[in-house]
Write a structure and sequence with these properties.
This protein is an alpha+beta fold. Helices cover about 30% and strands about 30% of the residues. It contains eight helices and 14 strands. The chain is elongated.
């Protein structure tokens, strides 16, 4: 079978600046260019023998703007440590410093650089090869699970915010504050390790449950684990005869909000008092 050539194309307001970033910094070559072609200027950057290249186009008079989120990535896997270090040094010599990755997974074995349009390139010091995906299993909380329940949540909360008293109550004493009042905690396992969790907290009306404390290990992201946990939580509430699910989040957590909307949650019409200072988004899912 013929392997197709991959072109990744996007518009820009900054052709010259992108040439500097991707050629001088990343080390790609300009393999083609055009001017005033049907009203567009453009560059094609890559390596002459590589099965991929990047195309950047500019239409005079049309403003494109910046990347919609900081999690739009191109990832280059460089398993050789010396080659990876040379690539990082070339970016820095061209005047581009690493930035913290939106997803902390990429900071463990790589460096992230932001181009002039706000899109990002990850230089990952690792080898990638396709492998058969291990199944993810969802189970209920068991005695002894409190440390991993806390660790998964503390990891993401501390990355973006500060642990609050309401967090500590639930994370340090999940039996007392979640399970004993009629709630549930679900955990996702991958290869025998707990890599994700979420809680269902029974609310005062007796038929509503708050979806809370959802967390996925950065090392396991990209496996749809959050979505699997969310689906399991919704099904659990349906099985219990629940009428409504509710959650609180924050507007800066765009991937999480996208996940909740995919599960069917919608913004509430009027906000309720919250024990969390960071909660500026409230959503609900009506089940009956």
């Amino acid at each position: 079978m013929t392997i197709p050539i991959l072109r990744v194309a996007r518009p820009t307001d900054n052709l010259a600046a992108l040439r500097c970033f991707y050629c001088d910094g990343l080390g790609l070559q300009q393999i083609s260019s055009f001017t005033a072609h049907n009203g567009f200027d453009g560059l094609m950057l890559g390596h002459p023998q590589a099965p991929y290249h990047l195309e950047f186009t500019h239409q005079p008079g049309h403003v494109v703007g910046r990347a919609p989120t900081p999690d739009n990535l191109l990832v280059f896997y460089l398993p050789d440590a010396a080659e990876w270090q040379a690539a990082v040094q070339r970016m820095e010599a061209a005047g581009f410093e690493p930035v913290p990755s939106y997803n902390p997974y990429w900071d463990a074995h790589g460096h992230t650089f932001e181009d002039p349009d706000g899109y990002r390139v990850v230089l990952q010091q690792a080898e990638w090869a396709p492998r058969e995906a291990s199944p993810v299993t969802i189970r209920d909380f068991r005695p002894g699970d409190q440390p991993v329940f806390r660790q998964l949540n503390e990891e993401w909360i501390s990355h973006y915010f500060t642990l609050e008293p309401a967090d500590l109550k639930a994370l340090d004493h999940p039996e007392e504050y979640i399970l004993n009042p009629g709630g549930y905690i679900l955990l996702a396992e991958l290869d025998g390790q707990v890599v994700g969790t979420c809680a269902l907290i029974k609310m005062a009306d007796g038929r509503s449950y708050e979806l809370a404390k959802m967390a996925v290990s950065p090392a396991a992201q990209g496996r749809q684990i959050g979505y699997l946990l969310g689906q399991a939580a919704v099904q659990r509430v349906r099985d219990l005869g629940g009428a409504r699910m509710y959650l609180e989040s924050n507007s800066k957590l765009a991937p999480a909000l996208s996940l909740y909307r995919k599960l069917g949650f919608r913004d509430v019409a009027q906000h309720n008092p919250s024990p969390y200072a960071r909660a500026d988004v409230q959503m609900e899912l009506l089940l009956s």
